Amino acid sequence: MKVVFQYVKMKESETLSNITRHQLEKLHKRFPYFMRANVFFKMEQGNTDAIRTCEIELTGPGPILFATTTAANFEQAMKETVSDLQRQLRKRKEIYKPHLNR
Fold first, then answer.
1. Cα torsion at 31, 37, 41, 47 (round to 10°)?
2. How do the pLDDT tens digits run along the chain, 102 residues long?
3. Taking every pair of C-alpha atoms in the chain, what is the biggest distance, in angstroms?
4. How far apart are CA 100 and CA 9, in angstroms?
5. Distances (CA, A) of 64 to 12, 46, 49, 75, 82
6. How far is residue 56's CA from residue 40's CA, in Å, rounded to a whole number?
């Protein structure tokens, strides 16, 4: 699986990249049919605080899966985004299950 990171309006973080890569590899072991993950970390200024957003896009056979989360820190946003993607992958697996049993 190929993972591509993009950092928008912030410096690249090797630690954040490694944590995210580890979470996505765990997800890939369970759902091996997605081949690429595009990960975007964005820092935007809000009215009172900096807004931290994590967006992840998974590509594989079928439609592209996408999830985004805004949180107080990047680690929390990334974990919630991966959790949302896991929910989407479970739904997709249920759809494909009848086709795989033939």
1. -70
2. 899 999 998 899 999 999 999 999 999 999 888 899 999 999 988 766 778 999 999 998 878 999 999 998 999 999 999 999 999 998 887 766 655 555
3. 56
4. 43
5. 25, 29, 31, 23, 14
6. 6
